[in-house]
Structure formats: C-alpha cells, structure tokens
Amino acid sequence: MKKLFIAGNWKSNKTLSEAEDWIGKFNTVWENVTIVVCMPYTLLGVMKSKNLSFLCGAQDVSPFGDGAYTGEVSARQIKECTDWVIIGHSERRKYFSETDDMLQKKVEQAKSVGLKIIYCVSDDITIVPQGVDVVAYEPVWAIGTGKTDTPENANAVIVNIKTKYKIATVIYGGSVTSENVASFVSQPAIDGVLPGGASLEAEKFIQLISYASHD
Ligand code: PGA
C-alpha cells in the first residue's frame, strides 16, 4: 500500500486552549500515513515542546528574511518551531494578492532554512517553483464549498503535475471529508489529501484518516 500524506489546514481557527483540547483527543497512530497539521503561528511555538503523534506545519511564510517587515513571520522563525509550511494557498492568493513572483520568493526563503513545502495550485497550468516537496492540487471552486472535483479528474490533473514537475508526492484538496476521502486516495496518482474543514474536529479528522488508510 502507498504511504499517504494527509495535511490538515486549520486556517484562522483555534485558540491555544482549543488546540490543546484537539490534541487531547487526537491520540491514534497510523504506520502508513504522514500527518501534518498546519496551524496558526500563535500555536506553533507551544506545539514544539509537546510529544505529538503528528507533525505540525505553518500556513504561510514571509517572502523576506528577518528584519523590518512588520507583521511578517520569517522562515527562520518558523523553522525553529516546525519543519513544514504551506505556500500558495488559494486564500492567500485571493485575499492577500499573492502572485507567482511573491510565492517564488517565499519558496526561496523556506528552502534557505530547510523548511519542507506543501505548494498549492488550482490546476496543472499554474507554475510550481523548483524545490517544493509536496504539491496540493486544490481547485478554487472546491475549497470550503462542499463540492469536490471528481476523483478521476483529480487523478488526471495530478498525473499532469507529476509529469511536468517531477514531483513524487501530489495530493488533492477541496471539500475532502471522511465520506469521500477513500475515492480520492484509491486513485493511482493521488498520494493523499488536504482537508480544511474536516480537520477542525479531532474525531472527524481521525475518522477521515482511518477511512483513507483502511485501518
Ligand atoms: P476545505 O479546505 O477542505 O475546507 O475545502 C481545503 C483547503 O483550503 O485547503
């Protein structure tokens, strides 16, 4: 069986106490699944000192290094807390006007400190910078809408991305739930999923991972 990569995206959700509660409930371990929970910056420093059954990730990184960039969090600051970062999520592109040029700079910053990158694209035309570790194919219209791409089309897009960019791990995101996750990961080219809403409750996320991995 292929090793699955499942990245939860909490977005701008959870206070520290809510995150502690989630962690208290998330106590299952899966042999064949890499789990990365991408959470707000405010939680990452605290998570570092905990003994967790999953990896943590950030949801963004500054395109600049350390310095006078008020409000930004640099790659070096993130790397102190975690090894993973999402770059290029469609919500960043839409609400914060992030362009391919800016995302290229973010990738360079992340790589310069050894962060591993989950890079999001909404199709197989969008540029994927060199050096990213995982690509997430997430059609914009499927994010948070309850509508998914078909598993067959997601597989075809992912084959194109893998062929074009020689990336080994490409996952699908957009309204993934425990009900539909198996239909995606059973496709030959799909290596895992990126659930947003379905990662917010520990019990639901556990169920999703179990259904994905057939445990
Ligand atoms: P969703 O979010 O699962 O809630 O659609 C996915 C994402 O934004 O990555």
Describe this structure in words.
The protein has 215 residues and is of the alpha/beta class. It has one domain: TIM Barrel. It contains eight helices and eight strands, in the order E-H-E-H-E-H-E-H-H-E-E-H-E-H-E-H. The longest helix has 15 residues. The chain is globular, with a radius of gyration of 16 Å. The model has no long low-confidence stretch (mean pLDDT 97). It binds 2-phosphoglycolic acid (PGA).
Helix content: 25-40%
What is the alpha-carbon Rg in Å?
16 Å
Overall strand count: 8
Number of domains: 1
Uncertain runs are: none
SSE succession:
EHEHEHEHHEEHEHEH
Per DSSP, the total helix count is 8
| Distinct compounds present | 2-phosphoglycolic acid
What is the third-level CATH name, the topology?
A: TIM Barrel
Task: Describe the secondary structure blueprint for this structure.
Layout: E1 4-9, H1 16-25, E2 33-38, H2 41-48, E3 55-58, H3 75-81, E4 84-87, H4 90-95, H5 100-112, E5 116-121, E6 134-137, H6 151-165, E7 169-173, H7 181-185, E8 192-194, H8 202-213
Parallel strand pairs: 1-2, 1-8, 2-3, 3-4, 4-5, 5-6, 6-7, 7-8
Can you summarize this structure?
With 215 residues, the chain is an alpha/beta fold. It has helices at residues 16-25, 41-48, 75-81, 90-95, 100-112, 151-165, 181-185, 202-213, and strands at residues 4-9, 33-38, 55-58, 84-87, 116-121, 134-137, 169-173, 192-194. The chain has an 8-stranded parallel beta barrel with strand order 1-2-3-4-5-6-7-8, surrounded by 4 helices.
